[in-house]
Specification:
Distance between the termini of chain B: 48 Å
Helix content of chain A: 10-25%
Radius of gyration of chain A: 27 Å
Number of helices of chain B: 11
Number of strands of chain B: 2
Strand order of the largest sheet of chain A: 2-3-5
Helix content of chain B: 55-70%
CATH architecture of one domain in chain A: 2-Layer Sandwich
Shape of chain B: globular
Radius of gyration of chain B: 21 Å
Strand order of the largest sheet of chain B: 1-2
Number of strands of chain A: 5
Largest sheet of chain A: 3 strands, antiparallel
Largest interface: A-B, 15 and 15 residues
Order of helices and strands of chain B: HHHEEHHHHHHHH
Oligomer: heterodimer
Structural class of chain B: mainly alpha
Order of helices and strands of chain A: HHEHEEHEEH
Largest sheet of chain B: 2 strands, antiparallel
Structural class of chain A: alpha+beta
Strand content of chain B: under 5%
Strand content of chain A: 5-15%
Number of domains of chain B: 1
Number of helices of chain A: 5
CATH topology of one domain in chain A: Alpha-Beta Plaits
């Protein structure tokens, strides 16, 4: 049979020759292997001092974006919740009133938007499904908690603040937005 | 003169004790570092710069652990076991000639605690007592794994002592003395025994690995089958003593190998320093320690390369391979020695 890799070795149970029975050449060969590894560079990242760089398309904690005027993009259409394979997203829609025009971009908005971070598999299908460029995955990590309930992230944790915007241009930039 | 003699010896004993313990402590650190390097890791690096305070942290940890004695253990033997192991591995360093004589304060100070004329016999005697520490420790714990470990240790040590002794006999035949100092002096300069007795050296080295319970002969403690073997039931500093005695034994057996086969404190070009004996003593001492460290390095290198033997393979290697090789080697050496002395 043709071998699938170039590492295939034919194994045989022929009796060992006298030199092989000495074992010492084989042991020396093995010790040379470990000696080579001794001189190699370490593979470890010394975590608190060094932090491994994230890939530009890393899928971490979500963000709910605002537009350039600071209005929430999300219109609570529910496509992200439908797309979510882990069923981690739930939301409640509400109608925007006249004096809320500076808060929400569309006439409909999400009064409650929750992602269960324990269910989420960080596949990124929600941001693919979103027609309003409202939800994105970022290179931030979901911090650890002691209680399961604390992993259900509401709008307080998901929506970006107007002053400290979250940059997602590395991850996705369609050119539609004029701001990050 | 007599009082000075005792003061010299006392100072030397204290220094040797501290050096043995210090080296054993840093062997644990170096072992972990070396294992890390071989496995492309970093190793301990949190305690102090490069983690050099790690052995101290380990020692403090050992002292602070609960000292537990199993309810069915034989209490006195349980306490004596690690003591014997530590004592026997430390006491061998008394007969080792660490360097040429020092000349200080108008006196000649020998860098050897006990100048025994049967030094090598003493060393072998003490090494064979060393098995008692492990045997007593394993038996008194009243635990089947400990007992298995102890039985394995004693059978392994007894079978490897034979081949070890026989290969040491060839060295005795060559140098014509049982005194370690005379054995070292017979290898002056570069006239080392390894060039005459390579086979005896290989046998001796393999047996030394088995005697110190180092991998690939670490069956007595084998973590994955016997959960630590003879020291399964030990905790706190009693466990520390057992682990420590292994490292001290490694240090001492490296020293003995350096003496028997690699000329002890001898190095090529010693004659240039004949004018200044103190410089010679310091140089000889450092060369000797360099050889010891090289052996320790090889010990560790082997440990992190070769997997453990199976027990029947171990016995097969000891009785059917090493002892015949050592015997034949001894016979040939005997004939050659007799021939060159004109006894035929």
């Amino acid at each position: 049979m043709e071998s699938l890799t170039n590492r295939k070795k034919i194994v045989s149970d022929k009796p060992m020759t006298w030199v092989e029975k000495l074992y010492l050449p084989a042991i020396l060969k093995g010790m040379m292997v470990t000696l080579r590894h001794m001189l190699k560079r370490r593979k470890t990242v010394k975590y608190p001092e060094e932090i491994r760089e994230f890939a530009p398309v890393y899928r971490g904690m979500h963000v709910l974006k605002r537009d350039e005027q600071g209005r929430e993009n999300c219109t609570a259409c529910g496509l992200c919740a439908v797309a979510c394979p882990a069923e981690a997203i739930t939301m409640t829609a509400a109608e925007r009133t006249k004096d809320e025009k500076h808060l929400y971009r569309e006439e409909k908005y999400a009064s409650v938007y929750e992602i269960n971070m324990l269910r989420c598999i960080f596949c990124g299908l929600c941001e693919e499904a979103c027609p309003k460029e409202a939800i994105f995955l970022t290179d931030r990590l979901v911090p650890t908690q002691f209680e399961r309930g604390e992993f259900i992230y509401g709008k307080d944790k998901l929506v970006e603040s107007e002053t400290a915007r979250i940059d997602i241009t590395k991850r996705q930039f369609t050119g539609k937005r004029t701001h990050v | 003169m007599e009082t000075f003699f005792w003061i010299d010896k006392l100072v030397l004993v204290v220094i040797l004790f501290l050096i043995s313990l210090g080296i054993a402590a840093y062997q644990t650190y170096f072992e972990r570092k070396l294992a890390a390097w071989i496995q492309d890791r970093v190793g301990p690096d949190r305690a102090g710069p490069f983690g050099i305070l790690q052995p101290i942290a380990d020692g403090v940890k050992m002292f602070l652990k609960e000292d537990f004695t199993p309810s069915n253990a034989d209490r006195w033997l349980f306490i004596i076991g690690p003591g014997i192991a530590m004592f026997t591995s430390l006491i061998t360093s008394a007969i080792i000639p660490w360097g040429p004589d020092l000349h200080l304060f108008g006196r000649t100070i020998s860098l050897q605690v006990a100048e025994l004329n049967i030094g090598i016999l003493f060393a072998f005697g003490v090494i064979s007592i060393g098995v008692y520490g492990i045997m007593i420790g394993g038996w008194s714990s009243n635990n089947k794994y400990s007992l298995f470990g102890a039985i394995r240790a004693s059978s392994q040590m007894i079978s490897y002592e034979l081949a070890m002794g026989i290969s040491a006999i060839t060295i005795i035949m060559i140098s014509g003395s049982l005194d370690l100092r005379e054995i070292v002096q017979s290898q002056a300069g570069m006239n080392w025994n390894i060039f005459y007795q390579p086979v005896a050296f290989v046998v001796f080295f393999i047996c030394a690995l088995a005697e110190t319970n180092r991998a690939p002969f670490d069956l007595p403690e084998c973590e994955n089958e016997l959960i630590g073997g003879y020291h399964t039931e030990y905790s706190s500093m009693k466990l520390g003593l057992f682990l420590f005695s292994e490292y001290v034994a490694m240090f001492v057996s490296s020293a003995i190998m350096a003496i028997l086969f690699f000329g002890g404190y001898n190095f090529p070009g010693m004659d240039y320093f004949a004018e200044s004996p103190n410089l010679l003593a310091v140089l000889g001492l450092s060369v000797f320690f360099l050889k010891i460290f090289l052996f320790i390095f090889v010990f560790m290198w082997i440990r992190w390369t070769i997997p453990r033997f199976r027990f029947d393979q171990l016995m097969h290697l000891g009785w059917k391979v090493l002892i015949p090789i050592a015997l034949v080697n001894m016979l040939i050496t005997g004939f050659v020695t007799a021939w060159s002395n004109g006894w035929f």
